[in-house]
Amino acid sequence: MVIIDTTPPTIAAIYTHYETRPNRHRLHLGASEIGMPCDRALWYRFRHVLESKHPGRVCRLFETGHREEARVIQNLRDIGIEVCDRIDGHQIHYRDPDCVWFTGSLDGMARGFVEAPKSWHVVEIKTASKKQFDRLENKGVRRHKPEHWAQVQMYMHWSGVKRAYYLCVCKDDDRIYGERFAYDKPTAAKLTERAHRIINAPEPPEVAYTPKRPPCLWCDYAELCAETRVPDINCRTCCHWYCDCTGERCVLGLEIGKLYCDRHMYIPALVPAEVVDVYDNRIVWRVGTDEIATGPGHNTSEYLRQVISNLG
Ligand code: SF4
Ligand code: SF4
Predict the structure, then answer these.
(1) Is there an atom of ligand 1 within 6 Å of 233 CB?
(2) Where are the domains of the chain?
(3) Which regions in the chain score pLDDT beneath 70?
């Protein structure tokens, strides 16, 4: 009798390898994120409130999507399209001229498309499951994947190239979707304003939390909005971290770059506990029936976090 283990130990080891790789947060707010639906989720992401953890299989799936980019670029070159996907060996990278944190790296610039041979285009390459691919074919990029449309708008805005070619490969049957679209200046201006507003906000933006409906239904931060989880401890969740579009600093004059220090104190809006008092660089929190002071000479953020987490 053959015993089939659906995840044999060797395969499990491959997945574990993906799960245990360092999962570094992005330092910036990316063009690929700015079209996402919720301001607060973007703020949480920029502030590194939770480290995202995905199963190893899913991490590998992300990698599969990235690998497809090189193949599609080769497909374009094979039919005579001129593609620039690297400058000095690096991906083409843009930074918002008015905000050091708002950036993006595009898949390429290309010229020679059959539909418009003379025009340079921003090229963006994605992959999708059959279900998503079929929807994309029915609705087009702007309606089905507004976050991708927004991403490409920012690339056109920053590069000055007024046309884009979006390609998407179906992971089930290798069909390729292609759509050209044009730069939309008002949209790029709105996205830029949104990015600046989120980056400059000292606290999470107020939004309606609707746990039973998208986007909250599948949001990585739902436990934070439901106040059943305490964020991670790092400089970006500390009330001493000051950030705006020009840069960052610790208002205590400490060095930023380490994960955090023992002077960390949570931004009150991030903690599911009432602030009872604030004095002499300390915060007193009500947790259940207890009062807990955090700050120099008192408890650490880690202690506060553990007490709240233990309450369930
Ligand atoms: S749970 Fe909903 S409100 Fe909260 S961050 Fe996510 S999408 Fe936004
Ligand atoms: S006090 Fe410490 S944790 Fe807070 S911002 Fe400064 S260096 Fe970072």
Answers:
(1) no
(2) 25-200, 230-311
(3) 1-5, 258
